């Protein structure tokens, strides 16, 4: 984890402090996603009073610690922020229950973490079924609404090659809307049901 922090400092220093334009290649995006996921795991642990257990499993966290493998059902976006202060920082975890009524989707927990450091913004979206009986199920997480596309680029899973940063900045009036954008009714589709023998 210390190597991850040191690489982050060398890659992101001018981006965070000065908002310097950057080109992030697929290798960079994989690293940035790992950095954002690490921050989300820490934030999740800090809010366990809101949830019965962590959003990621012990196996997933251990695998990430040893090899930086991000769990498959995670979505991560990168954006940019321009606030009133020269330097900004915030960590905003959010927790919600699925609003889909039919079982088993009513057993779903949604967790998001938005991390702002200087001009850089990461947002992680994750889910977990409460019941162990449903843990083998997979869902299709929603894509971001079109209104956010000019300001927010998905970096995990990697959908594009090299991406240019920054895009349109989030400001003091829009950052809170961005933080809370996954609360409320989220369209979720069940995509994999385990075979029952």
SSE order and pairing:
Layout: H1 2-18, E1 22-24, H2 26-46, H3 58-67, E2 75-80, E3 89-97, E4 108-117, E5 120-129, E6 138-140, E7 152-156, E8 163-165, H4 175-179, E9 189-192
Antiparallel strand pairs: 1-8, 2-5, 2-7, 3-4, 4-5, 6-9
Short account of what is shown:
The chain is α+β, with helices and mostly antiparallel strands and 197 residues long.
Descriptive notes:
This protein is 27% helix and 27% strand. It is α+β, with helices and mostly antiparallel strands. The protein has one domain (2-192). The strands form three sheets. Strands 3-4-5-2-7 form a five-stranded antiparallel beta sheet, with helices on one face. A two-stranded antiparallel sheet has the order 1-8. Strands 6-9 form a two-stranded antiparallel sheet.
Order of helices and strands: HEHHEEEEEEEHE
The share of residues in extended strands comes to: 25-35%
**Sheet with the most strands?**
5 strands, antiparallel
Number of DSSP strand runs? 9
Mean of all residue-level pLDDT scores: 86
Overall tally of domains: 1
Distance between the termini: 42 Å
Radius of gyration: 17 Å
Strand adjacency order, main sheet: 3-4-5-2-7
Q: Structural class of the secondary structure composition? A: alpha+beta
Structure annotation, total helices? 4
Unreliable stretches covering 5 or more consecutive residues: none
Large-scale geometry: globular
Give helix % range: 25-40%
């Amino acid at each position: 984890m210390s190597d991850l922090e040191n690489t982050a400092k060398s890659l992101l220093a001018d981006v965070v402090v000065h908002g310097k334009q950057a080109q992030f290649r697929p290798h960079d995006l994989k690293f940035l996603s790992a950095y954002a996921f690490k921050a989300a795991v820490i934030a999740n642990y800090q809010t366990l009073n809101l949830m019965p257990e962590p959003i990621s499993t012990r196996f997933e966290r251990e695998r990430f610690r040893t090899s930086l493998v991000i769990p498959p059902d995670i979505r991560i976006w990168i954006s940019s922020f321009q606030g009133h202060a020269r330097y900004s920082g915030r960590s905003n975890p959010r927790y919600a229950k699925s609003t889909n009524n039919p079982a088993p989707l009513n057993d779903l927990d949604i967790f998001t973490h938005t991390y702002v450091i200087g001009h850089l913004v990461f947002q992680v979206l994750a889910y977990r079924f409460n019941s162990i009986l449903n843990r083998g199920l997979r869902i299709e997480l929603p894509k971001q609404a079109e209104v956010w596309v000019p300001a927010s680029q998905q970096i995990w899973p990697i959908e594009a090659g090299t991406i240019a940063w920054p895009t349109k900045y989030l400001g003091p009036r829009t950052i809170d809307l961005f933080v809370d954008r996954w609360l409320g009714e989220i369209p979720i589709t069940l995509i994999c049901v385990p075979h029952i023998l």
